[in-house]
Amino acid sequence: MDINGASAIVTGGASGIGAAAARQLAAKGATVVVADLQAEKGEALAKEIGGVFLTVDVTDTDQIKAAVNAATELGPLRAVVNSAGIGWAQRTVGRDGEFDSAHDLDAFRKVIAINLIGTFDVVRLAATAMSRNEPDADGGRGAIVNLASVAAFDGQIGQASYSASKGGIVGMTLPVARDLAAVGVRLNTIAPGLIDTPIYGEGEASEAFKANLGKNVLFPKRLGVADELASMVVELITNSYMNAEVIRVDGGIRMPPK
Fold this sequence. Notes:
Blueprint: E1 7-11, H1 16-27, E2 31-36, H2 39-49, E3 52-55, H3 61-74, E4 77-82, H4 105-130, E5 142-147, H5 151-154, H6 160-180, E6 185-192, E7 195-196, H7 204-214, E8 224-225, H8 226-238, E9 246-249
Parallel strand pairs: 1-2, 1-4, 2-3, 4-5, 5-6, 6-9, 7-8
Helix pairs in contact: 1-8, 3-4, 4-6
């Protein structure tokens, strides 16, 4: 699928994997809407790649609709990347056996709301806009890539909410792809492993921590970089025969319990 002259939306696009995807989509000729809550970084990136920044909280349907409408004004919306998400770590049961020490239920709801429901909200609205596009030779009107995590399969101790949210993204990949086939929209999911993003911080201690994490990767024994994920995003969008797949990009790692 050719995205030259089309528009694209990348949620969580101001940094990390999202920013790398936005740059690579722009390099393919797409005008990218960088949808994020980090205004300073998002505006700088949008200026760099000739795109547009919009403040988007993926739990706010009206903000998502505004981003989709803005994208369609820039060109036919043919590519969407759902990279927005948060993490949370807490054991299901506390050490003292008290109800109040059990996993924070509001935190669980928040992770699901952002990572899973937010992703689906973007999918349903963006795909609706894509359904209005003129089809290409294959009948294709657009492509969507969701970002899950290897935690969907190898969730660690304390990752109940995060793994549940990412497992939900994996679980909806096939049924949603089947739904969207009727309007010529493809949907795939990437499950990243340990990726070197700003979440790990900066400095000597951070580098040592990342190096230690990298020892758990099968090969190569390092953290992945955002561009390695972004290249898979671009492949899933532009390769018209990729549909309904969940692809791990993880160096072969299988996460231990902790």
